[in-house]
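Q: Give me the 3D complex with adenosine-5'-diphosphate.
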Amino acid sequence: MIENFKISLKEIDKINLINQEDKNYRIKNLEFFNKKGFPTKKEEDWKFSDLREIFSKNFKKIDINDTYPEENKFRLIKEFDHNYILLINGRLIRSDFKFEDKNKIKITGYKEENFLREKSNNPLICLNNALSNEGYNLVVEKDYKFEKVLVIYNLFNEDLSEKILNNKNKIIVKKNSELHTIEYTINRSKNKFFNNTYENIILYENAKFKNICIQAGRSEGYFHKFLNGSIKSDSKYSSFIFSSGLKFNKQDIKIDLEGKNSDCEIKSALFLNKEDHQEIKTVVNHLVPNCKSFQKIKSVLDSNAKGVYQGKIFVKDIAQKTNAYQLSKALLISENSEFDSKPELEIYADDVKCSHGSTSGNVDENSIHYLMTRGLTKKEATQLLINGFLKEIISDIKSETIKKFVENKLEFQVYGY
Amino acid sequence: MLEIINLKASINKRDILNGLNLKINPGEVHAIMGPNGSGKSTLANILSGKNGYKITGDLKYKGENLKDIPVEQRAQKGIFLAFQYPIEIPGVNTNNFLKTSLNTIRKAKGEKEIDTLAFLKLVKEKAKELGIDEKILSRQLNVGFSGGEKKKNEILQMKILDPNLVILDETDSGLDIDALKTIADGVNSSRSKDKSFLVITHYQRLLDYIKPDFVHVLSSGKIVKSGSRELALELEKKGYKKIN
Ligand SMILES: Nc1ncnc2c1ncn2[C@@H]1O[C@H](COP(=O)(O)OP(=O)(O)O)[C@@H](O)[C@H]1O
Ligand SMILES: [Mg+2]
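A: Here is the predicted complex, encoded as structure tokens.
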């Protein structure tokens, strides 16, 4: 059982270290993790997602992954033109920026020196700090707008049974530049594994970064990602989360609005089914005046699924004219499904526009009846309503081809074909 | 087409229909008039298969026991209810919904599914007849539609699905005279010897345009009087109270 799950310090020796200091940092982090173990619901941040319980129910053991196969037979998305990078088990395998000016883009694999040695009390971040040695670093130089979307193929290969993968990624968009990515996860592992990612995003002045996160299909993967975003003045970060189909997924998002007129948008449409468990946890820190944040999370929960949204808005005393909005809507299809929502506002400025709301309910019987009187079966009617409920979020995607692509993926989840 | 024998219905322990009898033959147009709360929509809902009602009595549709037929199959077998209050369905595109609906009904009849091109042509033609602005059909189903647009959308569905038994539940209420005429034209042009209509209305005004073969007065959950079109005029003059 992984109740007392401990990782040997020897694992750190396997990593090609740069210096002793790095090694000491990793050892400290691993010792912290070994002491704390996987988080339980006793910890406020894990109140609705008891990871230790989930793991002890579903994993017998967890080993550190050390396989990174080369991928040759790899099929690209055909629906739209795109640049891409290919990650296998988190490792950067190759990249193709054929639509872009290559002088403006830097892509490399994991580099120790790209990350600060930060201290954390989050056991999963510590675990990541201790063991991550794969990932990618992407820099968009200043004054450059991507011509086409960049797809990040995040592929997991077949033999990941009871493995843990720790990765660190970093994306920097410099002044006056724009990047649009689709993080597309393809999972070939039929067995359970755990992917623990730390991602650092920095947007410099007047930069724009938009990301869509989506799965190719259902998966046995357990995912945790901590996203640390730093947004400078006049910049905009937008994130669309469509990560339906994962056994477990927690996106722990921290965004610091550090520069005036910066803007952050987090939107999500999830269809959770068959004991899926997903949590979106956000902390948006309004640290300076005139910033905007917008969050809209829509979740549909079917048989035994569980959804969680913990959204915190923090407004610093000097952050006047803040405009912050947060809404969560859940639709419960099955009696055995559950949705927990915990909005939190911590506001120290007085000239602030801030609103939040949360609703959850069942499918409207009158709507079902109406559709059935037009010949649809109950199942068809319910699926149409689910799809309609989630579509609002997708309709905010600007590119028609990408919208269609996302729509098809979602319909596949909802209709099962 | 439809035969209702001694229908009693209650909901939440409240008796609403108290022994209603009605027989509609193919090609006939029947009107049911009655004051608010007399049970008109309850009757329409029960025919559509809405659950929640406790029902006794016999309901026969084309010789089959209607109670045994699930909601969607009633639609597939040709029963159509134009709702008094059409439901708003966010996120569902009106055209897509219409096409899905038509295709499920065609499939059930053993017909081939209609392709998108042929469907759009059909919708365009029918929408034009009803004076429906095509733009609303690419919007979400009934969401933000005006009262008139919602009612016209019901008649559009009737036209496209081509049912055998049409129940119109106060399709006229809240409409201006032009919309009323358009809707009546829409209904009249669908009349044929193998289609029947049950026109539920509160006012006789609609019956100036859709001329029924029979008029029934519903009061306290029962048909208290039946007659020809003249009965509607009489009702208009005397009011419901005197008829009782
Ligand atoms: N779900 C319900 N529970 C209790 N009473 C109801 C319900 N639905 C309708 N009624 C009552 O039944 C009566 C008939 O309603 P309805 O059929 O809608 O009348 P009409 O369409 O003729 O105006 C009304 O008095 C109404 O309040
Ligand atoms: Mg009514």
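A quick observation: The pocket of magnesium ion (ligand 2) is lined by residues B 40-41, 84, 169-170 (CB under 6 Å).
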